[in-house]
Amino acid sequence: MEVYNENVLKDGQKLIIRNVSEDDAQGLIDLLKTVDDETKFLAREPGEFCFTLEQEKEFIKGMMNADNNILFIGEIDGTIVANCSVGIVTNNKRYLHRAAMGISVRKKYWSKGIGRLLMNECINWCKEKGVEQLELEVVTENSRAISMYEKFGFEKYGTKKHALKYSDGTYADEYYMILFLE
Ligand SMILES: CC(C)(COP(=O)(O)OP(=O)(O)OC[C@H]1O[C@@H](n2cnc3c(N)ncnc32)[C@H](O)[C@@H]1OP(=O)(O)O)[C@@H](O)C(=O)NCCC(=O)NCCS
Known about the structure:
Elements: E1 3-8, E2 14-19, H1 25-38, H2 53-65, E3 69-76, E4 79-88, E5 98-105, H3 114-128, E6 133-139, H4 143-151, E7 155-165, E8 171-180
Parallel strand pairs: 5-6
Antiparallel strand pairs: 1-2, 2-3, 3-4, 4-5, 6-8, 7-8
Helix pairs in contact: 1-2
The structure holds coenzyme A.
Residues 39, 41-42, 103-105, 110-116, 136, 138, 142, 144-145, 147-148, 151 line the site of coenzyme A (COA).
């Protein structure tokens, strides 16, 4: 397992940022279920994530063996508190300059600098891979995430109308955002 970074947060807690490993399967399931409950800005309805332990292990193995994707884990005192995944959009040669990313942090740990630290790793990985542009979509109401992305230099370049439809029948739009890397 590769540790990328160890950081002391504002409140003194130690955050380890590392590559995912198979042993993380249960911790990752717990994280994903929790964040789906805690925010309406992610891709799934509460309770919708239903990978078994075996399926999650297979998914992690795939990530670990892939050259063009990586899943970073943020861990505090042995608990997975955040994840950030980034990967080349497709392996066709014409797309190798583009990567897309996703990030989530447990609510209890918001505003401690964890998102920013994971974004740094994600951007460093892109630069090492020669990625020229990092792309994402974000719900237009997700001001916290948008503010973070804009601080990293991401720009909005369009809006996907009704990108999400919630179980109560309402919709959310998403901004397309892009960061051009040096
Ligand atoms: C968006 C998210 C990843 C930010 O993670 P975080 O660990 O709270 O972020 P940080 O503490 O590193 O803060 C990074 C930036 O976020 C913004 N931010 C943090 N707390 C904020 C708050 N209370 N109000 C507004 N913006 C805030 C700020 O721009 C901040 O930059 P600063 O530290 O220079 O002020 C986290 O809130 C999250 O997981 N949200 C739910 C899932 C999600 O929305 N993911 C993104 C989907 S596109």
